[in-house]
Amino acid sequence: MTTDTIIVALSGVGFGILLGGLGAWLITRSKLASAEKSASDKALTLERVEAELKAEREGSERFRSYVDHRRDEEEGLINKLTQSLDSRELKLREEQSDLERRAKELAKLEESIQVRLQEVAALSPEEAQSRIVAQVETAAQEEAARMVESTLARAQNEAHKRAKHVLVGVMQRSAVEYVTEATSAVVELPSEDMKGRIIGREGRNIRSFELVTGVDLVVDETPEAVVISSFDPIRREVARLTLMNMMLDGRIHPGRIEELHEKAQQEVHRMVVEAGERAATRAGITDLKPAVIEALGRLRFRTSFAQNVLDHSVEVASLASNIAAELSLNVAAANRAGLLHDIGKGLGAEYEGPHALTGMEFLRLHGEKDRILNAVGAHHFDIQPESPEAQLVIIADTLSAARPGARRENLDNYIKRLAALEAIANSFEGVEKSFAVQAGREIRLIVTPDKVDDLGARKIAREVAKRIEADTEHRGSVKVTVIRESRFSETAKETRIPT
Question: Which residue, 319, 407, 421, 461, could crosslink 305 as a Cys pair with Cβ 3.0–4.6 Å?
Answer without folding.
Answer: 407
